[in-house]
Amino acid sequence: MPGYELFGAAERKEVNDVLETGILMRYGFDGPRQGIWKAKELEAEICKTFGAGYTQLVSSGTAALTTAMAALGIGAGDEVIMPTFTFVASIEAVLSVGAIPVPVDIDETLTLDPKAVEAAITSRTKAVMPVHMCGSMAQLDELKAICAEHKLLLLEDACQAIGATYKGKHLGTIGDAGTLSFDFVKIITCAEGGAVLTNKESTYEKCDQYSDHGHDHKGKDRGADLHPYLGYNYRISELHAAVGLAQVRRLAEFLALQRKNHSIIHNALKGIDGVTFRVIPDPAGDTGSFLSFFLPTEELTKEVVAAFQAAGIAGNFYWYDNNWHYIRKWKHLQSGSWMHRFYDEQKKQVMHYSNQAFPQSDAIMGRCISSAISLIWTEEQAKERGAGMAAIIKNVLAKAAHPVG
Ligand SMILES: *Cc1c(COP(=O)(O)O)cnc(C)c1O
Known about the structure:
Layout: H1 9-21, H2 38-50, E1 54-58, H3 61-71, E2 79-83, H4 88-96, E3 100-104, H5 114-120, E4 125-128, H6 140-150, E5 153-157, E6 165-166, E7 169-170, E8 177-181, E9 194-198, H7 201-210, H8 238-249, H9 251-269, E10 276-277, E11 290-294, H10 298-310, E12 316-317, H11 331-334, H12 344-354, H13 359-365, E13 368-372, H14 379-401
Parallel strand pairs: 2-3, 2-4, 4-5, 5-8
Antiparallel strand pairs: 1-9, 6-7, 8-9, 10-11, 11-13, 12-13
Helix pairs in contact: 1-8, 2-8, 3-4, 3-7, 9-14, 10-14
């Protein structure tokens, strides 16, 4: 999964270009920077690599989501439909613009069940936000049709699926806007950073302004810029952009390694009776950053997770018990634990929606294991890992089929 595993000479070279001039900021200082514009260069590289019309870099994936929502006009009291399985950052971003996250059930794609999305639409719904979890994609045709029918915005959280495609198009470029994250454990990294992708010039312009205190960036003198809108500071630095530039140029290399190792683990597990795999709407577009699979029951899944751990096979995520990725453990949201006061209406709505029961999601997440795929395994290591996992799963399932005593 993570690009940090192959950090090297290319990344150091790009950072050194910036260190040579000492201009660490992405805007201004036209003379002293001697033609070094890493953030601008990275934005152009992302547009080219992903086939996006426009790209705005920001300081994190969370900032990218917040910026995209502001630019799309999502705000006070608007409801944003999103999956119960995500990273808590997607919720934080919705709250940051005063909107209401409305979690709905996932299906075996591990993201939005289109039927659950339709059932959750109200007169206040403004956007649908699929989260392309664990390197793979949502059912975008179905979601696009729902958005078109109900006149809703489609905002893709593609933070975990950099390089994945759906029917030939990169995730993040299919909705009204999409976001990427380059935090340290993502498919490509620059330590901390993110991007908003969009094909609409006016949305891009708003992102450009929002992420830099509202600067319109029309002139040469920052001090004389106008501020047509209120903004915040979500700027990326030149140092971060430099690392990102080296990494995005290596994306194809990372994806090839990932897919190769993914297929080795997949081959080791696919014949096992009782093991099924995550439904992938367009298998050709999967990044291979995780292999996600299901066992027959929650109890057996927990046994397998414990046995992997006991055998020292790391990197197998059981999201159902995870504090950060599944709604079940988000007590802070459910109890309205905010440091600062929220408007009563927003707080009431957030607590109402996050305290719903999600039996369909529970039944899926309780049986799911996501196995992270490394870029640096040798073929032998990957095969050994796959064989070890397969032996453990078969053993647990056989014991359950023929209990002793
Ligand atoms: C990582 C991630 C984010 C946020 O990215 P940061 O750069 O860590 O702020 C948002 N959504 C999802 C699904 C993520 O995995």
